[in-house]
C-alpha cells in the first residue's frame, strides 16, 4: 500500500465490528467473570507464567496489580491471589508472550499502523527494542539506547528554555521511577510535569486540600467494612474497581446500607457474586444497592443540596440531634453561611436539575439521618465536570454536617484509578509543587529547582499547539487518545520537534508524532528488574495511602528492555553534563533512591526498612485523625453555586465512560458484558423516549457533533442503543468520543477536562 497520499488516522477507525446487544445485567462478577479472566490468561500467556502470576498478584511480597489503585486487605488475603477479572486482563495484556520487534516496524509504515484499531494495536505484543522515526521518514527503525539518549539530550539542550519541554507521566510509574524522573526534570530546569491525574482525580485533590487539608481520601479499608452507610457516586466499581465489591460486601454483612447515585444502573452496583466465596456463587450473589438514584449527568450538586436541605429540615423537626453541632463547632469553619444558603435553595430547581423525585431524596435523607458512620466514595462521574471541584466540596459539606470524617467508619473515599497515580503525586510529579518540597529537594540533591509552576495537561496541549513547547516526553500512557479534543491534540503533538514515549505496548500516540519520534520500551510491573546483578523491587501507594513493595516475577519479553528508573538515569547522564547527582548510584540500587526519598518527603522515615515489612506501611493522614491542615486549622464548609445546565433544544449531554473490556485507552476486548453490549464500541446509549422523539430505531447509525464556543467538532459512525439512562443524557465510550470533548471545557479550578458532560447533537448517518 502506498502511504504517501494517505493521512495518519488520529482517531480510532470508523469501522463497525458486528454489534450484539441484549441490555444491561443486574449482577457482576460470578462464574462468567472467572471464565473470562482465565480465558484471557490462557489466550495470551504461557501456562507456567500464568500460574506464577496468579499466585503473586497483590500478595505480600508479590507484585502490585497494575489494574487499579484499590487497596489490598491488611491481613486475610486469599491464597490464590487477591485478583479480579479486570486485574487479570491488565496483567495478561502486559505479560504477553508475543514480542513486537523491529521487523514489524520495517514491514508497516506509520500510516499503515495508524489504520489499526486500538484493539488491534494492543494485540501486536510487547515492545522489545528502542525505535526511531526520523524527520520525513515513513517507517520507524531500530536505534541503540546510547544513540537514543544522545538524541533526546541534544534536542533538550538546544531549546531556548527548559520550559519548552514537557514531561508527562501516566500513573503506573513506581515511586522510585517517579521520584528520579521529577528530580531529573527539575535538575534540567522546569516544572512542566503534566500527568494523568490532571484528567482524573485532580478535582478531588484540589477540593479536599482546600476543605480538609489533604488532597487524598481519609478512609481505610477497615472503615469501609465498618460504615453504616456508603454513598457511591459517579463510579462503576464492578468494572473499574472490582475488588472494592468484596469490601462493600463486608460492609453489608456488618449491617451497612448502600446508596448508589449514577445515571446508569451499573451491574456491579446493583448485585455482586464473590468469585472467592462458593456459598455466594451458589446463592446467586448479594444485593449491593439499597437505594439506587438514577441521577441526571452532572446533577450531583443539585441532589446534594436537596439532600442537605431535607436533612436540615428533619433536624429542626426532630429536635436538633441529626446534625453534629458539636463537631461543627469544634472542627469547622463557615457553617452559618453554608446552612443559610442551603435553607434558601430553590428546591424544585434542584429536583429538576438532578432528575430525581422528592421522595427519593427524602429516602436518602432518612437513610443517613440517624447515622454518623457515613462514607462517600466517588470517581470520574464527579471529577470530570466543569464544576468538578464544586462537586467534591459539596460532598465534603455533607460529611461535615454529619461529623462524618476523622472517625472510624466515616470519611472521604475518592477511588483512584491508575495503580500508582497517588504515589506519583506524593513523589513530586506535579506541575504546581509546593516551595517547601522544592527547598528540601534542592537541599538534599544540591540542585536549584525552578520555582515557577509548570503546565498541566490542557495548557501543555495548548503550548504545543502554539509552538511554545517543542519536546514532548511521556513516561507511559497514551497522551493522544487519553486527552480531550483528539484532532486538536494531534496537531499539537505533530508540531513538536521530538516526541518520546517510554512504553510497554504500541499505542496511537506512537503514530501521531513530532518531527522526530522515539519509542523506548521498558519493563512492566510483572517483569523481573535486575540492576548491577541484583534483583530490585519498587513500591507503590494505593488509594488509601498504604505504601507497599512490588516485585515482578517473569523474565522480561526481551533482553533489550530497560527499567523506567534506568531510562531516567541514562537520560539524566546524557543531558545534564555537570550534574552532581550520582545517577548511576541511584539507578544501580533502588534502596539508594528510597534513602533519598526518605530525606525529602515527610512520612517516608525508615522507608527501606518499613517497605520490606509484609503489607507495607500507612502514610500520615491528618483528616483521618480529625486534624485538618487547612490555613485556618479547621475543616471548611463551602457555599456552592448550582451549575448552569442550559441545553439548546436539540442538544444532549454526553458522558464518555469505560467499557468492561478496556483499561483506559487499552482495549482488551470488544465486549461490555455487564451492559449487555458485545463486539462493538462505537455505540451511543440513549433513552428510548429520546430515540422515539428523534425518530431513531435500535441500531441506527448516527453522527455526533459538539458546538462549543462556536467550534464544531465531529465523531462519525456510532450505533444508537436504547438504554435505561435519564432523558437528554447519552453515554459513549472513551477514547472513541474524545474528539468531541472541547479542549477549553474543563474544571475551572482543577483544569480537568469535562469529559463527563459534553453537549452534543445527534444526527442520522448512513
Ligand atoms: N478495568 C478497568 N479498571 C480501571 C480503569 C479502566 O479503564 N478499566 N481505569 C482506571 C482509572 S485511570 C480510573 S480514573 C478509574 C475510573 O473509574 P470510574 O470513574 O468508575 O470510570 P468511568 O467509566 O469513567 O465511570 C464513571 C461512572 O460515573 C457515572 N457518571 C458519569 N457522569 C456522572 C455524573 O455526572 N454523576 C454521577 N453521579 N455519575 C456519573 C457513569 O455512569 C459511570 O458509572 O478506574 C480505574 N480502573
Ligand atoms: N473522554 C475521556 N477521556 C479520559 C477519561 C475519561 O473518562 N473520558 N479518563 C481520563 C483518566 S481518568 C485517565 S487516568 C487518563 C489515562 O491516560 P493515560 O495514563 O495516558 O493512558 P493509558 O491508556 O492508561 O496508557 C496506556 C499505555 O501506557 C503504557 N504502559 C502500560 N504500562 C506501562 C508501564 O508500566 N510503564 C510504561 N512506561 N508504560 C506503560 C502502554 O504503552 C499503554 O499503551 O485518561 C483520561 N481520559
Ligand atoms: Mo484515571
TrEMBL record:
Residues 1-27 are annotated as: Disordered. Pfam families: Molybdopterin (PF00384), Molydop_binding (PF01568). One of its GO terms (biological process) is cellular respiration. Belongs to the prokaryotic molybdopterin-containing oxidoreductase family. InterPro entries: Asp_de-COase-like_dom_sf (IPR009010), MopB_CT_YdeP (IPR037951), MoPterin_dinucl-bd_dom (IPR006657), Mopterin_OxRdtase (IPR006656), Mopterin_OxRdtse_a_bac (IPR010046), Prok_molybdopt-oxidoreductase (IPR050123), YdeP_MopB (IPR041953). This is Molybdopterin oxidoreductase domain-containing protein. Residues 126-502 form the Molybdopterin oxidoreductase domain. NCBIfam families: Fdhalpha-like (TIGR01701). Keywords: 4Fe-4S, Iron, Iron-sulfur, Metal-binding, Molybdenum, Oxidoreductase. SUPFAM superfamilies: ADC-like, Formate dehydrogenase/DMSO reductase, domains 1-3. Residues 652-756 form the Molybdopterin dinucleotide-binding domain. GO terms for molecular function: 4 iron, 4 sulfur cluster binding; formate dehydrogenase (NAD+) activity; molybdenum ion binding; molybdopterin cofactor binding. One of its GO terms (cellular component) is membrane. Its cofactor is Mo-bis(molybdopterin guanine dinucleotide); [4Fe-4S] cluster.
Amino acid at each position: 500500500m502506498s502511504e504517501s497520499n494517505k493521512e495518519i488516522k488520529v482517531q480510532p477507525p470508523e469501522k463497525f465490528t458486528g454489534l450484539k446487544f441484549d441490555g444491561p445485567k443486574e449482577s457482576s462478577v460470578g462464574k462468567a467473570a472467572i471464565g473470562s479472566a482465565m480465558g484471557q490468561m490462557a489466550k495470551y500467556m504461557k501456562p507456567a507464567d500464568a500460574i506464577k502470576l496468579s499466585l503473586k498478584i497483590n500478595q505480600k511480597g508479590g507484585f502490585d496489580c497494575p489494574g487499579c489503585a484499590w487497596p489490598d486487605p491488611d491481613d486475610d488475603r486469599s491464597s490464590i491471589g487477591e485478583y479480579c477479572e479486570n486485574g487479570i486482563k491488565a496483567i495478561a495484556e502486559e505479560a504477553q508472550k508475543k514480542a513486537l520487534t523491529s521487523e514489524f516496524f520495517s514491514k508497516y509504515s506509520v500510516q499503515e499502523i495508524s489504520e489499526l484499531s486500538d484493539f488491534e494495536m494492543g494485540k501486536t505484543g510487547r515492545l522489545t527494542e528502542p525505535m526511531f522515526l526520523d524527520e520525513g521518514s515513513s517507517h520507524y527503525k531500530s536505534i541503540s539506547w546510547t544513540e537514543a539518549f544522545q538524541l533526546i539530550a541534544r534536542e533538550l539542550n538546544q531549546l531556548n528554555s527548559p520550559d519548552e519541554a514537557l514531561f508527562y507521566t501516566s500513573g503506573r510509574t513506581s515511586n522510585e521511577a517517579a521520584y528520579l524522573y521529577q528530580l531529573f526534570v527539575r535538575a534540567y530546569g522546569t516544572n512542566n510535569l503534566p500527568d494523568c491525574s490532571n484528567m482524573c482525580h485532580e478535582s478531588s485533590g484540589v477540593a479536599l486540600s482546600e476543605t480538609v487539608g489533604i488532597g487524598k481520601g481519609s478512609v481505610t479499608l477497615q472503615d469501609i467494612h465498618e460504615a453504616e452507610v456508603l454513598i457511591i457516586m459517579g463510579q462503576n466499581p464492578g468494572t473499574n474497581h472490582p475488588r472494592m465489591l468484596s469490601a462493600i460486601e463486608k460492609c453489608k454483612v456488618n449491617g451497612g446500607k448502600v446508596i448508589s447515585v449514577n445515571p446508569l444502573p451499573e451491574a456491579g452496583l446493583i448485585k455482586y457474586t464473590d468469585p472467592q466465596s462458593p456459598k455466594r456463587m451458589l446463592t446467586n450473589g448479594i444485593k449491593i444497592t439499597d437505594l439506587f438514584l438514577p441521577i441526571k449527568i452532572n446533577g450531583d450538586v443539585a441532589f446534594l443540596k436537596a439532600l442537605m436541605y431535607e436533612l436540615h429540615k428533619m433536624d429542626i423537626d426532630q429536635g436538633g440531634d441529626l446534625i453534629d453541632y458539636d463537631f461543627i463547632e469544634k472542627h469547622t469553619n463557615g457553617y452559618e453561611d453554608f446552612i443559610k444558603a442551603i435553607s434558601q435553595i430553590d428546591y424544585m430547581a434542584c429536583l429538576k436539575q438532578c432528575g430525581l423525585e422528592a421522595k427519593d431524596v427524602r429516602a436518602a435523607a432518612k437513610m443517613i439521618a440517624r447515622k454518623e458512620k457515613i462514607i462517600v466514595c466517588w470517581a470520574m462521574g464527579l471529577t470530570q465536570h466543569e464544576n468538578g471541584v464544586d462537586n467534591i466540596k459539596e460532598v465534603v459539606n455533607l460529611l461535615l454536617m454529619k461529623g462524618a470524617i476523622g472517625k472510624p467508619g466515616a470519611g472521604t473515599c475518592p477511588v483512584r484509578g491508575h495503580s500508582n497515580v497517588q504515589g506519583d503525586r506524593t513523589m513530586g510529579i506535579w506541575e504546581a509543587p509546593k516551595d517547601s518540597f522544592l527547598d528540601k529537594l534542592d537541599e538534599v540533591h544540591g540542585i536549584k529547582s525552578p520555582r515557577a509552576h509548570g503546565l498541566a495537561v490542557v495548557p501543555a496541549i495548548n503550548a504545543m499547539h502554539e509552538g511554545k513547547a517543542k519536546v514532548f516526553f511521556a513516561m507511559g500512557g497514551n497522551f493522544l487518545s487519553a486527552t480531550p479534543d483528539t484532532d486538536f491534540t494531534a496537531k499539537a503533538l505533530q508540531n513538536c520537534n521530538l516526541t518520546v514515549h517510554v512504553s510497554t505496548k504500541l499505542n496511537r500516540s506512537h503514530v501521531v508524532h513530532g518531527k522526530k519520534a522515539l519509542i523506548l520500551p521498558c519493563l512492566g510491573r510483572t517483569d523481573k528488574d535486575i540492576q548491577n546483578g541484583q534483583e530490585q523491587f519498587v513500591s507503590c501507594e494505593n488509594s488509601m495511602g498504604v505504601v507497599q513493595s512490588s516485585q515482578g516475577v517473569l523474565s522480561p519479553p526481551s533482553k533489550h528492555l530497560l527499567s523506567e528508573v534506568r531510562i531516567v538515569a541514562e537520560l539524566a547522564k546524557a543531558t545534564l553534563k555537570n550534574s552532581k547527582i550520582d545517577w548511576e548510584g541511584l539507578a544501580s540500587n533502588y534502596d539508594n533512591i528510597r534513602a533519598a526519598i526518605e530525606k525529602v518527603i515527610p512520612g517516608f522515615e525508615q522507608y527501606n526498612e518499613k517497605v520490606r515489612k509484609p503489607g507495607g506501611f500507612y502514610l500520615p493522614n491528618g483528616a483521618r485523625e480529625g486534624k485538618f491542615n487547612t490555613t485556618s486549622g479547621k475543616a471548611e464548609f463551602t457555599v456552592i453555586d448550582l451549575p448552569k445546565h442550559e441545553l439548546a433544544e436539540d442538544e444532549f449531554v454526553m458522558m464518555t465512560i469505560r467499557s468492561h473490556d478496556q483499561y483506559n485507552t487499552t482495549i482488551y476486548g470488544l465486549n461490555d458484558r455487564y451492559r449487555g453490549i458485545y463486539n462493538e464500541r462505537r455505540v451511543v446509549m440513549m433513552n428510548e423516549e429520546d430515540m422515539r422523539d428523534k425518530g431513531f430505531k435500535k441500531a441506527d447509525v448516527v453522527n455526533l457533533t459538539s458546538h462549543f464556543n462556536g467550534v464544531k467538532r465531529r465523531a462519525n459512525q456510532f450505533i444508537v442503543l436504547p438504554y435505561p439512562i435519564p432523558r437528554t443524557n447519552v453515554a459513549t465510550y472513551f477514547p472513541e468520543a474524545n474528539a468531541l470533548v472541547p479542549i477549553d471545557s474543563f474544571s475551572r479550578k482543577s483544569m480537568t477536562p469535562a469529559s463527563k458532560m459534553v453537549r452534543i447533537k445527534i444526527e442520522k448517518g448512513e
